[in-house]
Specification:
This protein is α/β, with parallel strands linked by helices. It contains 16 helices and 14 strands. The structure holds adenosine-5'-diphosphate and magnesium ion (MG).
């Protein structure tokens, strides 16, 4: 109703000082207030905490928040208290007396949010006390920790299932930034979410068209792309030297609206270059990953990866700097046979170390354009856990893919076609 909507906004302003909700927040809040099991998949930084903190104030009883890290709990509880909201956390650091005080405040309906670790949910003292506490709903933060396929698997998250069974009438809100179908399915099953409402924001930016291209002469190809360009862009290279050499080459070929940027510059130089780029509509910076933090330019029309990023997270963060204004934008990735050969060499002689492994997988995944983290993490995790069979299997598969790429004629993908190639992995 209208009154309720108004109250929500008033509460948001009063306790948080915000004027509006972000994408999906309001819908999630409505869903949980209507006692529906709810699953929220939003990227890190999207504002998932508010999705349970605010509705906790609107419901009778205590919202039980399950969180994987004590540091996170402390941080959130401090923030809530600072905002004037009654919140507490339980940890083994507290003595019996302190815990007792907290339980009593919950029983009296004073505390609105109680944070606990997944381990505590089987604790006898906790279970005894909770019987006398009215719970409004359960919020499971970082819900992907329940998935055995994820990098952050926490066996104790399995405990939540039993608790849900014993308290079937209490609605559950699960939140995560991991959006792979397998993990999602596992969350639904293990948390026993009943016909959950699912809120998911695409991690892929629809207005960015992605091209990956195999080229033998990258300098020449960059020149060809830039020749007809009249827009703002970023070219990512991996070393300072590369940034400078590529800039020099382009300048020699009469392309003047480009410059290099890296951490070796003085603050003054950096500011000058960034300023010029910021205020121009057709300037291109060739940069190491020193350039990016805090970029706040709407009309970046393209991001070109001269070399692949060191991890998929970096890669998506970097291409995500294009097209913030929602206009059509492009991401190019250039790769070549020599890079493939180098990786093949590494795999031939030894089992790669952690960072090499991540690099190879990122490389392949950015070529094939899979906007998912699932497989790399899975393979990666198996590798660092040292499960030899799986490691060998994974590397064998990677070798297959490398071999496939090695033997291809020039490949040119755009985002529509690439998925079929994935069968190889
Ligand atoms: P997530 O858990 O999704 O990673 P957080 O809940 O930690 O994200 O929130 C990230 C940041 O966004 C926090 O600083 C939070 O205060 C801010 N934030 C959340 N919702 C809003 C909003 N509606 N308006 C402005 N800032 C918000
Ligand atoms: Mg969070």
């Amino acid at each position: 109703s209208n009154d309720f909507d108004q109250l929500k906004y008033k509460t948001l302003k009063h306790f948080w000082g915000y004027d509006s909700f972000r994408d999906s927040q309001e819908e999630v809040i409505n869903s949980i207030i209507n006692e529906k099991d709810t699953l929220v998949l939003l990227p890190t930084g999207a504002g998932k905490s508010l999705c349970y903190q605010l509705p906790a104030l609107f419901r009778e009883g205590v919202c039980l928040v399950i969180s994987p890290l004590l540091a996170l709990m402390k941080d959130q509880v401090n923030q809530l208290k600072f905002r004037g909201i009654e919140a507490e956390y339980l940890s083994s650091e507290l003595d019996d007396y302190d815990a007792e005080v907290i339980y009593n405040r919950c029983k009296d309906g004073l505390t609105k949010l109680l944070y606990i670790s997944p381990e505590r949910i089987t604790n006898k003292q906790f279970l005894q006390n909770i019987e006398e506490i009215q719970l409004s709903f359960i919020a499971v933060d970082e819900a992907h920790c329940i998935s055995e396929w994820g990098q952050d698997f926490r066996p104790s998250y399995q405990n939540i299932k039993e608790f849900r069974k014993n308290n079937p009438e209490i609605p559950c809100l699960a939140l995560t930034a991991t959006a792979t179908p397998k993990v999602l399915e596992e969350i639904k099953i293990k948390l026993e979410l009943k016909n959950p409402k699912i809120f998911q924001k695409s991690f892929k930016r629809e207005n960015i068209r992605i091209f990956t291209e195999e080229v033998s002469d990258k300098f020449q190809r960059v020149f060809d792309i830039l020749k007809y360009n009249h827009s703002s862009g970023i070219i990512y290279v991996r070393t300072r030297k590369e940034a400078e050499l590529l800039t020099e080459f382009l300048h020699k070929n009469q392309l003047k609206n480009v410059d290099y940027f890296h951490a070796g510059l003085t603050t003054k130089e950096k500011n000058a270059k960034q300023n010029l780029w910021n205020t121009s509509n057709n300037y291109v910076l060739i940069s190491t990953n020193a350039f990016g933090m805090g970029i706040d330019k709407d009309n970046v029309r393209f991001v070109l990866h001269y070399s692949p990023a060191p991890s998929l997270e970096n890669y998506y963060q970097e291409i995500g700097r294009a097209g913030r204004d929602g206009q059509d934008s492009f991401a190019y990735l250039l790769w070549n046979k020599q890079e493939i050969i180098n990786f093949e060499q590494i795999l031939k002689n030894q089992i790669p170390n952690k960072s090499e492994f991540l690099k190879i997988i990122t490389y392949l995944y950015s070529i094939f354009q899979v906007a998912e983290y699932e497989l790399p993490e899975k393979v990666f995790q198996l590798n660092i856990n040292g499960i030899q069979n799986f490691t060998k299997l994974s590397i064998a598969k990677i070798k297959n893919v490398l071999n496939f790429l090695h033997n291809q004629e020039i490949i040119y993908y755009n985002d529509n076609k690439s998925l079929s190639s994935l069968e190889l992995l």
